[in-house]
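Re-running Probable membrane transporter protein to confirm reproducibility after the cluster update. Everything else is unchanged from the original entry.
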Amino acid sequence: MLALAVVVLWYATTSLMGKKIVLPNTTTSLVVIGFVAGVVGGATNAMSSVLLMYLLSMTDDKDTIIKVGNLCYFVNKIVQAIVLKEFLLEVPIQTWAMILGLTVLSVLGIIIGAKLGKHLPSAKFRTLILWVLVGLGVKVGWQGVQGVL
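Result of re-run:
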């Protein structure tokens, strides 16, 4: 987690200071980053930071970043549900009510975000995502420090 935090914070701060990091647009790059994101996601449950860094390095088109990011998150949740099926079947009804409520709030947030996103310029969107990465990097770093202690 500490290594992930260092990489995420380095990428985000470097990008915020104006240096755009560009990865080669090849199938090999795609496969390697996808594999790394899967390993990181399995080990730390922080796959989003790797995917966001990859998407930001490949395109400035906010619509592409949003669509690909959402598709990756959706597929990730399906895989998690399949892998954790036995544990999910043991979750109490009260917990499912809370999960349903949070899901409804999340969907509402997505709808509001989609409406606001149409008015957000790509450059501001990119900056916002980089600040989200800073937050994720700090969070993962803090969790890593706590794990060491």
